[in-house]
Amino acid sequence: AGSQCLSWTGLNWFFCSLPAATAAVYKQWIPNTNFETASNWDKGRVPCARDVVRFEKDKVVSVFVGSPHALTDMYLPLNGEFLLAAGAAFTAFDGSWDPGCDSGGTARFADAEHRSWFDPTLWRDVLPSGELRPGGPIFSVHEERVPCRHDDVIFQPETSFRVNTDSSQPVIHLRSISVMGQELNTPSSWAGYLGGPSAPLQFHGNGTLQVTGTGCPDKSGCACGNALDGPRICAALLRAPGRQCPDPACQSPLQPLGHCCGVCGATINLEFTPDFDLQKYQDKLVQELLSQPKYAGVQMAMSKVHRAQTFLGIVSRGAAPLIQIVLIDDRAGAQAGTTAEQLAADIMQDIAQHGEALGISSGKMEVATGSTASGQVGSHPVSRITAGTVMGLLFSLLFLGGILFLYRKGKLR
């Protein structure tokens, strides 16, 4: 059965209908603003018949109601909506006995204004069926736990929500957005939804969500696109309850691109050719190396990133695309990161033997464990690195010689 919605703006109320549910994919928003969610109320329980329900008048809300409720009284905000499931309703309490509701009180709806789009703790990975993706050896750096530019976003069917889209980028690109079971995967369908009554109540902030309908077109992968909002993502992560960034056991922890916490283990940065296939290479590492019993406690993150480049460490040369591999393990104390280091060494050895066939032109490894300081291991092929180093030195000498020549000619002071 479909749903109904009861909306109001100021004192103007109207009814509308919602589409039937469809399948959803990929990254799913966790919190909701449902009436029946106990954590959405200051008393930690759903209001009962003797309660007076109070919504703050200046707070904008969208509230899904899944069942009928009898209440003593209810104060509504000036701007909001109720999304009523089939059979849901509000009725006045008739004074009859209500089990579990002996004494009434005031139940206040929680403030959802500060739930941020860029909080990585408020998203989870799901399968195309909408079920939670099972755990495994693959994890994501924090910037990629928030929807990336080619991801599908899901707001669960029969739930309401309110999300703050404040961003350091004017437009937040996505492949598709599913709301109330309706998948919006074209710019026109999303624009139509934005023009309806619910969107302004569900999304607020300076960032504009834009649906493109396109996935990543490059087999070597696509950068997530959340780098500009990296500080916002880390700030939200560190504000979340619990120890989101535990103290690393190593003296010089690594700081992977896109990750908010220092880690013990290893990182590998790969330069690649047009023949490189990110998904195939990740599958190869999982099947041939990560599946080995000795690496049972190791987790791996792999994605395309853009690392800033400079000339002589001073002048910016833009950003170069790289494949970043992050390896961590479940070892503690002085052993933290040592198993990840061993896996990284095996990966580098495999690159030395098969890198050209895989579309990998070079790889650089960096290590930090609980017992050793961070270090670097050379790339494959070594001849290419040596040649690059010689050319860099020659170019630097020519550059400095040119400056000296101009100085002697009086062209520079």
From TrEMBL:
GO biological process: protein transport; receptor-mediated endocytosis
Keywords annotated in UniProt: Cell membrane, Membrane, Protein transport, Signal, Transmembrane, Transmembrane helix, Transport
Gene: Amn
GO cellular component, one term: endocytic vesicle
Coiled coil, from the record: none
Family matches, as Pfam families: Amnionless
Signal sequence range: 1-23
Bilayer topology term: Single-pass type I membrane protein
Keyword Membrane: yes
Highest taxon above the source species: Eukaryota
Subcellular location: Cell membrane
Name by which UniProt lists this protein: Protein amnionless
Source species: Rhodinocichla rosea
Keyword Transmembrane: yes
Membrane-spanning segments: 385-407
PANTHER family: AMNIONLESS (PTHR14995), PROTEIN AMNIONLESS (PTHR14995:SF2)
InterPro entries in UniProt: AMN
